[in-house]
Records
---
Amino acid sequence: MSRLERIYAFHQKLKNNRYPNAQTLIQEFELSRATAHRDISYMRDRLLAPLAFDASRKGFYYTEDDFSLPFEDSPKLLFLMGLLNKMADEAGLGSLPEMKKLEKRLSELIAPGYEELMDNVLCQWIEVESLAPSIFETIVEAVVRTCVLEIGYCSVTGSKSSRLLEPQRLINYQGRWYLLAFCLLRQDHRLFHMARIETAVIGKKRTEPPHQAAESFLDESFGIFLGQVRYHAKIQFTGTAAELVRRQYWHGKQRIEELENGICLSLPVSDDREIIMKILQYGANARVLAPESLRLRMVEEINKMTQIYKF
C-alpha cells in the first residue's frame, strides 16, 4: 500500500479522535517502525499537519480541528477529477487499464464522496469513437519516447497503406482522436484519424532533428481539415441561431459583426467540408454571404438534399 493511502488512513483516525501512533501504522499496514515514523514525519513536515503527541493516551491528535489533507472535502477538486474521468470515458479512453485504476484509486482513497459524484456528472459527446487500447497505448508510447511509428492505415474510402511516421501530437477533436505526424512516405505533415489506424508498431528512437510542424499548422484555419487558408467565410446568422453563435467559439481568428438582422461570423477556412456541415446545422437561420464559391457549394448540397426528399 502506498504512503498516500497510509497517510489518509492515519488522518481519518486523527479526525475521529482515535489517537493513532506509529504502532497503529505498523499493525495495520505491516510496516517497519522506521517507515511508520517516516510517514508521521512526512505528515508533519511536508503536509504541515498540526500534530501533537498526548503522552497519557500514547497517541497523536490534531491541535487544529479544521485541518484537512490535499483534495479532502474540496468540492471543486472533486468535481474536476470526476469530470476528467467522465471526459476520458467519453473520449473513448474509458477501457484503458490506467483509467480504470485511477477511478478505483480516487473512489477508494482520495475523495470520500467521489463515487457519488461520478453518478451525478454526465458528459455526452456525439460521434465518439472507441479506440483499441493496445493501439492507443503504442501511439502514446511512441510520442513520449520520440520513436518512429509504423502504422497500417485505412482511409475513409477503404484503401489501405503502410506508413512510417514521426509522431508529434495527439489531438481530440469533437470526440475523435487524431495523430499529427510527419509522414516519411509523403515527406510532409499529415493528420491521421486514429480510429482508422489498424496496426501500430514502435520503431527505433529518432536521432535526427524532428520535423516540427509550424505553430500555425493546427490553428491557421477552421476545423480539423488542416492546410493553408483558402478564403475567409462570411456567414449571416439570424433568429435563435444568431443568439447561439454569438456566444460560441469556432476559431481563434473569428470575427463577429452585429447586423440589423442577426450577426455575421467571419473566419478563415482551408477546406469546405466541415464549414458546410456547420452551416447546414442551422438550417434556414444561416446564409453564406461570401465567398461565392462557398455559396455555390451550399446551393449544390441543398439541391441534392431536396432531390432525395422528393416524393
Note: The first strand starts at residue 51 and ends at 54.
---
Amino acid sequence: MNIRKTACALAIGTLLSLGAGQSLAGDTIKVGTFLAVTGGASFLGDPELKTLQMYVDEVNAAGGVDGKMVELIHYDTGGNAKEAVNFVKRLIQKDRVDVIVGGTTSGTSIAVMPLVASSGIPFISLAGSVKIVQPVQKWTFKVPHTDAMAAAKIFGDMQRRGITRVALISGSGGFDKSGREQSIQLAPQFGITLVADESYGAQDTDMTTQLTKIRDTDAQAILNFGFGTGPAIVTKNVRQLGIDLPLYQSHGVASKKFIELAGDAAEGVRLPAAALLVTDQLPDSDPQKAVLTAYKAKYEAAHGPVSTFGGHAYDGFYIALEAIDRANSTDKAKVRDEIEKTKGFVGTGGIYNMTQSDHLGLGMDAFKMLEIRNGDWTIVQ
C-alpha cells in the first residue's frame, strides 16, 4: 500500500510500500510540530498546520501506516524562539514524539537545533535560512529552498537583465538577517555591487526614510529580504515615492497574502518561488505536475488560496512518514538515517535527493522566477 496514493492520490515518484509482515513500535506514530499559527508569521504557520491536519486525517482514514494511526501534537509558538524551545522540550520529554516536523521561522528552528541534537530526535524544519542545514547537523533537515538559493536565483535574473548596481533592504528577523548575509556574500559572484544596505524593524509601519536614501543612490534595482507585513510596506512605499526601479522580493513572500497586502503596488515585483504557485502554467510533462495539482485542489477546496508554506508542511510530513516506513520502525536513529537517504521524493518544493552532506536535497531547478502581473503569479521566461 502506498501511503500517498492511498491517502491523497499523490503517488508520483513515491517508492513507499507497506508490507503485511511489518510492524512499528507503539500504538501510534507521534508527529510533533511547533508552528507560528498566530503572530507576525501566522500567514506561514496557519497553512502549515492546516496542511498537516488535513493529511494526518487522510492517512488515518486510509488505515494509517501498517495499521498504526498518526497522531499530530502541535504547539503554537507565535514566532517566539523561547517558546519554541519550551514546546520542543515538551514534545520530546512529555509527549515523546517520534519525529518533529515544524519550525515555521528560521529563528525558532535554529533555536531548537541544539536541543534536537542533544535529545537525538529527527527534525525536519519548514524554515528558509541556509544556517539550518549549513553546516550539516546530524539530526536536522529542512524542506524549503534556502535564502542562499533565493539570492542566487534573484542575482542570476538581474544579471540577465544587465543590472549591476543593487540597493538591499531587509528586515530584522532571523530569515531576513540570514538572507541579507547571503546576498552580501553572493553579489560579487554575479558582478553585482550593493550600493545601499538598509534595514527595518519588525514593528515598523513606514520605510520611506530608508527608501528615500535608496532613491538617492545610483541603484538599478531594489532587493528586499524579509517576510510578514514588512515586504508589503516596502513595496507600497517604493511606489508612493515614485521609485521606478525593478523590485525583487525573496521567497519569504510567496503567498497570495503578500499580493493582497501590497495591492496594486505589487505589479511587476519579481521573486523566486516553488512551482506550486504556478501549477496551472506547468506542462503536463513536468514530474511535479500531478503532485502539485492534487495538493492545490485539496487544500483550496478546504481552505482557500494555496501557499508554498503549506506545501513545505506536506513535503516534511511525507518525507518523515516514508522514512519511518523504510526504517520499519520508529527508532529515532533509524528514522534519521532513512530521512538522510531520501531519494527522488517528488514534493511541492521540488524533487528531493538528500545525502550525508546535503540535508535539503534540492537544486536550483526547484525554483521558478515569478513576476506578479494583474494580481497573479506568472513565470518569467
Note: The longest strand covers residues 28-35.
---
Amino acid sequence: MKRSIVSLFAMIYFVSCSDNRPHPAIAFHAWGTAGSELGQFTGPRGIAYGDKEIYVVDKSARVQVFRTDGTPLRQWTLPDQTQGTPTTIRIQSDGEVWIPDTHNSRILVYTSQGDFKRTFGSHGREAGQFSFVTDVAHTPDGTFSICEYGFDDRVQQFKEDGTSVRIFGTHGRGPGELSRPMAMVYYPPGRLYVADAANHRIQCFSSEGEFLFLWGERGELPGQFRYPYDLDIDAEGSIYVCEFGNHRIQKFTPEGKYVAQWGMAGTGPGQLFGPWGVAVPPEGGRIFVADTGNHRIAVFEIDGRSDAK
C-alpha cells in the first residue's frame, strides 16, 4: 500500500472582518495522492467527521475511513457506478453513514463499518422520489431533509420512518427559490442552511421550510461565492462554506456575518484546487477539506479565535 502524508507548517493567513488584520492559522497538513489504493483518491468529493474519524467518498464510488491524522482504517465500494458517483457523505448521531447516491436518485445507508443496511427513495417527481439527490440533513428528533436538483430544485422533509412531511423550494433566483442546491446543515433550535450553488449564495430556512434570510452573491470578495458546494457547522453554530469556484473555505456566524477564510487556487501548502467538501469537528480547531483537484485531504489547523462579536 502506497501512502503519502504531508505535514506543512506554514503561516497560512485569513483576514478578520472585525479589525481587517491578518491572523495566521497554526499549520497545514495534507494526505493522499492520486490512485486507487487505500489512502489514495480519485477526486475526493464528499467528506464527513464522525466519532473521531474522517469519511471520504471519491469519484470512483469508494468510501474510505481515516483517523484524523490521515491513517487509513477501512474502505468499501458503492454498488453502482455506471450513472455517476456521490457528491456528499453524512454521519448520523447513531453512527449510520448516509450517502446521497446522486445519479441513482436515492440515499444509501451503511453502518460505520461499511455494512449495507438499506436504501431510501427512487427516481421520480413525487414525494419520496428524486432526480439528482445531493445531500441529507438530520434533526435531533429524527426527522430529515433531502435536497435535489434536476426535475425540481427543492428540499423534501420526512419523519424518521420515511413518511413525507413537506416539500419546499422551486427553481429560480428569488428568495426561497433554488438553483442546484448542493448541501445543507441543520442548526438548533430550527434553522436549515442550504448551499444554493448556482445562485452563489447561502439561504436559511426554518425547520418548517419557511424562508428566513440569505447572504452572498457571485464574486471573489469575502462574503461572496462562486459555486458553494458544501457546508458544515461547529458546536457554536459557525457555518463553514466550501467553494468550488474560489478554491477556499469561508467561515460565517449563524446570521451570515463573515469571519474568516482559508485557501486559494494552487497545489502547494494552504492551497486548494476545486474543493467539493468540508468537515469540521464539533469542537472546531481543524478544517478538513476534500481537495478534489489535488486528490488529497487538506487540513487547516486553526487557533479557534472568533473575531465576530
Note: The mean pLDDT is 90.
---
Amino acid sequence: MSNHQIKAEKKPKIEIVKSKSFLMRPIPLYFFLILLLPIILLFYSFHQPKRNKPYDATEINQMADNNDCSVIIRQKDTGLIKPLLFVESYRNEESYKPLKLKIDNYLKQKSQDGSISTASVYMNDLTTANHFEINPQELYDPASLIKVSLMIVYLKEAETNPSTLKKKIFFSSKYDEDYAATIKDVTISVGKQYSVSELLYHMIVYSDNEAFWLLIDNSDASAITKLNESFGIPINTDKIHNRKIAPNFVANANSISRFFRVLYSATYLNREMSQYALSLLTQSKYKEGLLKGVEKNIRVAHKFAEREEGGVIQLHEFGIVYLPNNPYLIGVMTKGKDKAQLSVVISDISKIAYDELKSK
C-alpha cells in the first residue's frame, strides 16, 4: 500500500429541496367562504316557508308551529286556472299569544274539574288570516255541522240552475234516525210539499234533521264527500264504535272551519249565494253557545251541532263574529258527559275571545 493516505471519496452532496404540499399551504379566507356558500344556501332553502302549495288538514296541522308560513289552498282543476279557496297564515304573532294562553288555561281548568273530557278551538282573524288552534289533532263527529256543507252543495247547483231553489219536494214520512236531536225548535210536517229554499231554511235556522234527510235523499249521495275532497278535507272515519251502517265521518276543527271561510270570502260560491248562505246562518235560533259570549248587537253567522253515543256527549259550534273592524271566525268542539256544561264552555270561550279582540 502507498504511504499516501487514501482520502475517502466524498459523496456528492444532495440538496433536498422541501417543496410545500398543497395541503400545508395557508388557505385564503375567501376559499372557506366559497365552500360554505352552497351549504348556507342549501340550509336556507330547506328552512324557507313553502308557499303556494296546497295542504290537506293533516299537513296544515303539522305546520302549525312554523313561524312564517302562509298556506294557499286552491280548487283542483285540470285547466289553465286554479281558483282560490282560502289563504291561511301561520305567523305566530305576539299579539295573539295572550288570547291563546287564556283559552288554553281555561280548557285545562275545565278538564281538571270534569266539565269536559277534551276540546279543540279554532280562531281566525278574518282581516289578516292569522289564526291559532288548540288541540288541532283531535277528531270529532261533526253531526249537524254537515248541514252547512249540504247547503253549499245545493247553492252551488243553484248558481247554474236557479230553479233548484224553487223545486218542490214532498215529505211523505218521518225518518228513522240513529241519533235523536235533543235541541229542537221547529220541524217540517209530514204530508206537505216544501221548496228546496224552505228546506234549507229549516235545516240551517232550526237545525231540522227531517229537512236535512229529505234534502240528502234528493241530492247526489256522494256530493258532500266530493265537496270535502275539493276543500282538501281528509275523509276520516270513526274506527272506535264500528257502526253497523256506514261509519261516521269525523273531522278536526280546522277542516270544519273551511266551510265558513269559503262562505265569508265567496271563493267557492258566487257572491250572491255566499250572501244567501251567511244570511241563513245569522238567523240560527240556537243561543246557548257563542251568542252568550258577545254583545247582543253583534251579528254572528253560526251553526251548532250535538251528538251523543256510548255515554259521550259532543257539542260544537262555529261562527263568524262580525265585530266592527275586526271580524273573526271561532270554532269550539267539545266532548264530555253533560251538555249544559259543554254549552257553558263554548259560551265562556266565546266571551274570552270577544273581550280580547274587542279591546284591540
Note: The radius of gyration is 32 Å.
